[in-house]
Amino acid sequence: MSSPPQPSPNGQQIPEDLALEIRRLAHDLSNSLEVIVQTSYLLSMAELKEPASDWLRMLDSGVAKALDINLELREYIKKHTPR
């Protein structure tokens, strides 16, 4: 479990109106990624032949990277907004 977000070292905060829009976009991105994650999972349950199984591995790798980036974005937002 990660530690609670800390204030930005230089004290800079994202303006509230901009923070709200960024939070909305991050939420929408999370919802879109959930569809991709679930689709990837369901495809992994099928017995795919080559080259489809290679494509699934590529998809899984991209999904993992996208989830990491999305988590990083959400943590950044938390650290740089007043809430």
Summed over residues and divided by their number, the pLDDT gives a mean of 85
Number of strands: 0
Shape: elongated
Q: Looking at the chains present, what oligomeric state does this protein adopt? A: single chain
Q: And the CATH topology?
A: Helix Hairpins
CATH class: Mainly Alpha
Q: Radius of gyration, Cα only, in angstroms? A: 17 Å
Major sheet description: none
SSE-based structural type: mainly alpha
% residues in beta strands: under 5%
- Please name the CATH architecture: Orthogonal Bundle
Which runs of at least 5 residues are low in confidence (pLDDT < 50)?
1-6
**Tally of helical runs:** 2
**Helix share, percent:** 55-70%
Distance between the termini: 20 Å
> How many individual domains?
1
Helix-strand pattern, N to C?
Answer: HH
Topology at a glance:
Layout (H helix, E strand, L loop, with lengths): L15 H30 L6 H28 L4
Helix pairs in contact: 1-2
Describe this structure in words.
The structure is a single chain. The chain contains two helices and no strands. By secondary structure, it is mainly alpha-helical. It is elongated, with a radius of gyration of 17 Å. It starts with 15 loop residues before the first helix and ends with a helix. The N terminus is likely disordered.
